[in-house]
Each structure stands twice: as structure tokens, then as C-alpha cells.
Input
Amino acid sequence: MDYDTTNTSYIDKRSSSMALASLVMGIVGLVMSCCIYPAIIFGSLAIIFALLSRGGELTANGYGKAGLILGIIAIVCGILFLAYGLFVLFVQFGGIEGYLEYIEDLMEQSGYPNNYDPYDFYKSYDFYN
Output
């Protein structure tokens, strides 16, 4: 009896499903690369699944390779978007304090209440007319 044929089919099924999961996570990570944290999370999962799909072999199948490449691209894009956001934050506003002051000024200009004055919800709307 040849026991290796049944065992390899189970390993092949497992590694092909891991490779497919890697591809899906890589695509989702790439699509969500403008949202920094999901890109890094899904890209990392794509890399992990691609490495697990090898199943002890030295080479991976096509889906595993594509998932690995897309995962790496998703992580790089997420890091680039993070760096760009921090660059804009420091150049445009001078840091997080400047950004928070800018938001406070916008809220004051638009008439939102501040923390120091009591706000009456009913005063802002004229329910009787």
C-alpha cells in the first residue's frame, strides 16, 4: 500500500487553500492600501499565508507567489501612505498641535460649541416657527 498518495493530497489541498487565502488577503490589502492599518494587517496576513502554503517545500504555487507579492506591495503602500500623511501633517500644520488648533478654529468658525460655554440644544433650533 502506498500511504503517501493520500497524505500528499491532504497537504496539496491545505497548501492550495492557504495560497488562495494569501491571494485574497493580498488583494484586500492592496485595495485598502489608502487606509494605512488595514493594508499593513492584510498584507502581513498575505505574507504569512503565502509562506504557510509552501507546506515544507522550497517553492510555492502561483497563487502563493502572487499573494506574497501583493502582500509586500500592500505593506509598502501602507507605509508610504503613512509617511505621506505624517509629512503633510508636519509641513502643513507644524505637527499634531497645529493640526488640533486648526480643527478647533474650524469648529469655532462654523458655530460648534466649545468646551467652555454651556450649549443649549434647543436654543440653536427654532421649534416654534
In short: DSSP finds five helices and no strands in the chain. Residues 4-95 form one domain. The radius of gyration is 25 Å. The chain has a mean pLDDT of 81.
